[in-house]
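Box S1 | Example of a co-folding query
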Amino acid sequence: MRKDLQARRAFVRTMVAVAMASLVPLGAAQAADPVKVGLMLPATGTFAALGTAISNAFRLYVEEQGGTLAGREIQYATVDDESDPAKATENANRLVVRDRVDVLVGTVHSGVALAMARVARQRDTLFIVPNAGAGDLTGSLCAPNLFRTSFTNWQPAYAMGQAALERGAKSAVTLTWNYAAGQEAVKGFAQAFEAGGGKVVRELALPFPNVEFQAYLTEIASLKPDAVYVFFAGAGAAKFVRDYAAAGLKDSIPLYSSGFLTDGTLEAMGGAGEGLITALHYADGLDNARDQAFREKYQAKYGIAPDVYAVQGYDAAQLLHVGLEAVGGDVRKKAEMRAAMRAATIDSPRGAFTLSAAHNPVQDIYLRRAEGNQNLVIGIAAEKLADPAEGCNM
Ligand code: PHB
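Box S1 (continued) | Returned holo structure for P-hydroxybenzoic acid
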């Protein structure tokens, strides 16, 4: 009789436990754990400041949410990728395989990001690109796990090609670092410029991240094109613009560029960048409340004005937030999380944007003029510009 009662009680306890367990939401076991974000960005080298801006703004957004997204604490693992493609696979594996991050975020340099995409794909790890513009990332390598909150190298370059024509140029010389980003930017510029009747008369290039520009400037001076189009960024961009002015070219041959040339670099140009016209998906002086609030908070926290890289990092965190919200923080629900991210409208400081089917921003490209340390918006070079996403089958 006593035994019977004990058995009955044990049975009831088991049933209660089962019932309780079914009341606990899926993923609760995991909910106590932080979501691990792997930040793979340059902390050294010519793109160091760009990596810092991305990291700063990503963290700022998370802090604004109280350090959690969808109820999950955010924990970081970081690697300095040095903008070195030769070390990229090993560095990405450190975060994805060793640290088992839930999401990989990075990087600035296209060649490094291409290697990261392969690592992320092997493990089906969510990968958000907050800068690198390599067309293949949302082209032939497009994938359900891969999202970009920045641009393709084609986007601002194509818009600049159209704007250069409108500003009266008929011939142009191009100059860039010889790697994916520069090659694609030159291609995008030439595509728009030549479609409208312009001619690229010479394509010049030097290895990344070299800054010995003198021979190229001499060649440009002797070719006397109507305009010069370049792709440079970071510390190298500041050096180039100083050298262009010192060679006496600034007043005789208009210098055009994707706006990376002058974003975050005007101060280091010491006035040599004044008046430069560039095209980019961000600008100073945008008339939108989201941007103003972002700029105030960023400036207050980091003591420096945000630039395009900061915006892209901020938006990477916003996009992750959308995904996490959709699954109540349960990162194991990959398909649902990615579907929500794909459908997101991001309320960006640059202006709201959506993602293309290939997961790249569809966005306005602004025309800007450098004044003091600002790239002031002077118009829209291309409205809601979507990358053609060649080779993407998803
Ligand atoms: C790139 O490598 O894709 C890249 C690097 C720096 C920029 C823009 C693009 O400012």
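The chain has two domains: 33-151+285-359, 154-280. DSSP finds 13 helices and 15 strands in the chain.
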